[in-house]
Amino acid sequence: MSTILSIKNLSKTYASGLTALKPINLDIRQGEIFALLGPNGAGKTTLISIVCGIVTPSGGSVLADGHDIVRDYRAARMKIGLVPQELATDSFESVLATVRFSRGLFGRKPDEAHIERVLRDLSLWEKRNDRIMTLSGGMKRRVMIAKALAHEPRILFLDEPTAGVDVELRRDMWALVRRLREQGVTVILTTHYIEEAEEMADRVGVIRKGELIVVEEKDALMRKLGKKQLTIQLKDALTEIPATLGAWPLELASAGSELIYRFDAKAEDTGIPPLLRQLHELGIAYKDLNTQESSLEDIFVSLVSTRTEAAA
Fold first, then answer.
1. Which positions carry the signal peptide feature in this UniProt record (predicted)?
2. pLDDT tens, position by position, 265-274
3. Which of 28, 58, 97, 153 has a Cα at 20 to 30 A from 133?
């Protein structure tokens, strides 16, 4: 799969001395969905703003489909669509007029068929003649997406696109994202809804304090860092874990009525069979067994907290 967005040693330090981005190196593949995760203030929006030409970098370079975002700005920006966090539209314009205007800004010839497809995909066609000021917050968010798609970008940035929107819009948006990927559009998203990244993304990047700390295929990341948890529901509660069970990293939970055992999801020897045999030999009866695998959110929290502790 070819690279459509190439970021090399990209950095940003403000006049105040604040380093918002440490040198970032990242290649985004054509047609993939890439999720950029990180806590508030980590540098996600700064990175997106530089690539989209809103913020000037302190160093490094970015190529968008082979076009340098500084030296060949106009061609690079034609390749990129951005749905920002904040709603920013001309409230007095109609939906149709503002989407048409966005297409023209990028030098695209009028294409009413394309504009209609975009508006219909976002359930905006019936609202096309309404002034934006009359729309609900969710509908305004749909207009922002339509504006970003008006000039047929090959790279689409979605910066916290579903924050505070209704369930229907979220469902419509992810259906649209899937269709765009089928058409070869590359989607880079930031989100606080990590379950969305887990469902949608091909690859995941985690950024913390301006540093890209991991980039990995989502499935590989979950295999590499994922843990499984075995919950043993005991017939009779324990007040403490017997010393003879010291070979297993066990925890008591639910007032002593559960034993929690966490193990490597990819390990050949999980340690579960000998643990259960040992419980039987000790006369510790159990009612039920339950296994649960780490989610992407668990892995994200683990990565960020580990780096925080290392830096302390």
1. none
2. 666 677 888 9
3. 153
Alpha-carbon distance of 286 to 279, in angstroms, equals 9
Alpha-carbon span 65 to 87, nearest angstrom: 27
Comparing 303 with 66, which gets the higher pLDDT? 66
Cβ atoms of 137 and 164 within 8 Å: the answer is yes
CA 288 centroid distance within chain: 35
**N- to C-terminal Cα separation, the chain:** 39
Rounded CA gap, 207 and 47, in Å?
10
All domains of the chain, ordered by start, with CATH? 3-222 (3.40.50.300), 227-293 (3.30.70)
Q: Quick one: which of 131, 196, 208, 198 has its CA closest to 169?
A: 196
- φ/ψ bin of 31: left (φ > 0), alpha (ψ from -120 to 50), beta (otherwise): left
Angle between helices 137-149 and 95-105 (to 10 degrees): 30
Which pLDDT tens digit goes with each residue over 17-49?
999 999 999 999 999 999 998 877 888 889 999
What single-letter DSSP state applies at residue 256?
T
Q: Give the number of residues written for the chain.
A: 312
pTM above 0.90, yes or no: no
Q: What is the DSSP letter of 191?
A: -
What does the alpha-carbon distance between residue 88 and residue 44 come to, in Å, rounded to a whole number?
19
Mean pLDDT of the chain: 86
> Beta partners for 214?
206
The tokens 């668990």 sit on which residue? 298
pLDDT bucket at 297, cuts 50 / 70 / 90:
low
